Amino acid sequence: MHELSICQALLDQVHLVAGDSSSERVLKIVIAIGPLAGVEPGLMASAFAVMKIGSFAAQAALIIEAVGVEVECSVCGTISAAAANRLICAACGGYRTRVVAGQELRLLRVEMLPAESPQTLN
Amino acid sequence: MCRDCGCSLTPESPRRVVEVMRDLLVENDRIAAHNRAHFDAHGVRVINLMSSPGAGKTALLEATIVALKDRFRIAVIEGDLATDNDAVRIRSRGVPAVQITTGSACHLDAQGVHAALHQLNLEGLDLLFIENVGNLVCPATFDLGQHRNVTLLCVTEGDDKPAKYPVMFRSSDLVVLSKTDLLDVLDDFEPLRAAAALRTIGRDTPMIRTAARRAPDIGSWLAWLECELAAFHPIAPRPASPLQRAWV
Question: First-to-last CA distance in chain A?
């Protein structure tokens, strides 16, 4: 359950972006988790649901964008999709590959509602 | 209120969208880089030792200390959920050990290692082992500032472990098969299949065999460590002779 630690790191980063919690309301947090990041999206969502309570992000929704795994073959140069535990080249079957997508553990964007907005929640 | 979904936001709501594109573990990685700079400044080679619980990390360290402590100055940072049993075992072999008790956390992080360094004198050390929490999942995600990741694969586990834990085994610079003295009585672990499983996750990581108890057989592990230390402490180049300089 290292998702709790990672969720804390996420909240710290969003706090830096949002600044003082009294000025803006965080509505949406969008992150990307690759299958080779070592983080379970479902556990991350559960951790977020618990950890946001009472925080500046209490009303924020967490959107987790799925990322596919792609490898680049060092032998034939092909970039192909792969499964997380089968990172071989789809074209030549070689195992000398480099992962070019699928390791992401990244905060993509934060959406906020300025407090002075005429819009109100409820 | 929005008529489509009932939310309180109309399409013209003045939302502020900030594109961030920042790795979530950037703070951990910053502290890890700080740790690494600290190790480099002291000329200490740092090995992060990982495996599932019970694969024999502490036993390997005990045998390693016995074999090398007269030639190299060694220290150990021990990560454990609850006890300091492993640190006590290491200290009884005559080298300093700092215990990090992680509580419910399943891994070490760079901040924890940084705090442990405040209890450890790096001056004069050659080799620092970080024995991570026994777990093949979580520790792989956190850089600690180490120079090398070493993962133990115990022969009582399946030889398909690399394919089951690709994140861990992809992060490894060396795979150490442990308790290989049991291979003769096990009929379901084939080292060649373990090597094949590594290749299916895109790795051709070197794999060596060790047995740390009874009749210790850790020669190839010690040779690997000595290569690491030699590469880290290159023989200082001699100043060029006046004749050589003339050619430059």
Answer: 35
- List, for residues B29-74, the tens digit of each pLDDT value: 999 999 999 999 999 999 999 999 999 999 999 999 999 999 999 9
Nearest to A85 among B15, B27, B166 (CB): B166
Q: Does B196 reach chain A within 8 Å, measured CB to CB?
A: no
Number of domains in chain A: 1
The whole domain housing A47 covers 3-68+102-114
Question: What is the rounded CA–CA span in Å between residue B243 and residue A104?
Answer: 54
**What pTM was computed for the model?**
0.87
Is B202 in contact with A6 (Cβ distance < 8 A)? no
B241 touches chain A (CB under 8 A): no
Are the C-beta atoms of A36 and A102 separated by less than 8 Å? yes
Contact with chain B for residue A50, Cβ under 8 A = no
Are β-strands B45-50 and B127-131 bridged in parallel, bridged antiparallel, or unpaired? Answer: parallel
Tell which of B17, B20, B27 to mutate to test the A interface (max A CBs under 10 Å): B20
Structure confidence at residue A2 (pLDDT): 86
Q: A7-40, pLDDT tens digit by residue? A: 999 999 999 988 765 668 899 999 999 999 999 9
- Please check whether residue A90 lies inside any domain of the structure: no
Range of the domain at B106: 26-231
Interface size between A and B, measured as CB pairs under 8 A: 123
Cα separation, A63 vs A29, in Å, equals 6
